[in-house]
Design brief:
mainly alpha; elongated; 91 residues
Length: 91
Amino acid sequence: MTVKHIKIDIPQDIVYSIEKLGKSKDIAKEIKISLAVTMFQRNVISLGKATELAGMSRVKFVEFLKEYNIPAYEYREKDYAKDQKTINSIT
């Protein structure tokens, strides 16, 4: 995987807020986690890519999402219909 290093300027008061937000004093890590969550929520990246960006295992990332009531898996109406069809075919 290729990596691109970027530099961003963040106001000091925002840095303090980020430090309070996370369990880590590593600002870059907290920003990467926030970016991973946001991109995952917007369906820009997959769960696997989000865990990679966040630097967490899949289990840890799903637990993190759960803490903030963010669904890790989307159960859509078409999934329900497919499951109903399967259930009906075996009963």
